[in-house]
Design a protein that fits this description.
There is one protein chain. With 271 residues, this protein is mainly beta. It has 3 helices and 16 strands. Strands 1, 2, 3, 4, 5, 6, 7 and 8 form an 8-stranded mixed β-sheet that branches. A two-stranded antiparallel sheet has the order 9-10. A two-stranded antiparallel ribbon has the order 11-12. The longest helix has 11 residues. It starts with a strand and ends with a helix.
């Protein structure tokens, strides 16, 4: 079974109604019968015209044992439906209907795209994967903005971003990006800091690093979760208040000697 397209194939039929056409197998001079080019099961496009009445039809039919079925109607005097044929002779031909005529692509050098699809047209015109644009290209487009396109005419986008012309490569900073309720931005330096934290003080941040005391070794945090411990010396009382986050240092000395005062001073300084 094949779809047949052939020149000079014509016949007549006296069939009536909307059923299959029984071919007379009497082609006019200079023409060939359908049976000369078609086998059972083959299909073709046909045109049918009543010799005396205003009845006509174009469609697709299947050839079987000297008859041609009317499978698909493309156009007809019955408004696109199968014509209920009246008595009398009708001429029938193998044709190529206008609705089935392929449109040949117009070559690029003649002002066309050289293609029949949008994808092939972009390839023919060297537009890569850019779907729609009317900008000026400074070379063969790669399909990506790698610096070989002048995007100043790109539509529907604007031609500038924060007064920066869209020509060649454009470097944008966070100041060029508008804020919105569903998208925020940070600087690269801030992003690095955020990447090192969990968002809460869960032990991955150092609250202090070094406490320096004159004349004494520095107290340095050994780990993010290290704890600084205050120790009361002689005649010193330490009082903590968790609700106010304070530590009160109170001297309990009375009538201290100079040696004791010196010891108290050293104790307050971390000794």
């Amino acid at each position: 079974m094949a779809h047949i397209s052939a020149d000079r194939v014509a016949d007549t039929t006296s069939s009536t109604g909307t059923t299959a056409l029984t071919l007379d197998n009497l082609p006019p001079n200079g023409s060939r019968a359908f049976s000369a080019v078609m086998s059972n099961g083959d299909t073709c496009y046909y045109s049918l015209q009543h010799v005396t009445a205003n009845e006509w039809e174009t469609g697709q039919g299947t050839f079987t044992g000297g008859t041609l079925s009317r499978d698909v109607i493309f156009a007809s005097s019955a408004g696109g439906s199968a014509v209920s044929l009246s008595a009398g002779k009708k001429d029938i031909y193998i044709v190529l209907p206008a609705s089935k005529t392929p449109l040949a692509p117009v070559p690029v050098n003649q002002g066309g795209t050289g293609a029949t699809t949008a994808s092939d047209a972009r390839t023919s015109l060297g537009l890569g994967t850019l779907a729609t644009q009317n900008g000026v290209f400074s070379g063969v487009s790669s399909g990506l903005n790698t610096g070989d396109q002048d995007l100043s005419g790109l539509v529907p986008n604007t031609t500038t971003i924060n007064s920066k012309a869209l020509t060649g490569n454009v470097t944008l900073t966070t100041a060029d990006i508008a804020d919105s309720t569903n998208k925020r931005y940070v600087s690269d330096a801030a992003l690095t800091v955020l990447g090192s934290t969990s968002g809460t003080n869960s032990g991955d941040q150092q609250v202090f690093k070094t406490i320096a005391v004159a004349g004494q070794p520095d107290v340095v945090a050994d780990a993010p979760s290290d704890t600084l411990t205050l120790v009361a010396g002689s005649n010193i009382t330490l009082m903590t208040n968790a609700s106010t986050d304070t530590v009160t240092i109170t001297s309990t000395a009375a009538g201290m000697t100079s040696t004791q005062k010196s010891q108290l001073k050293l104790s307050l300084l971390g000794g």
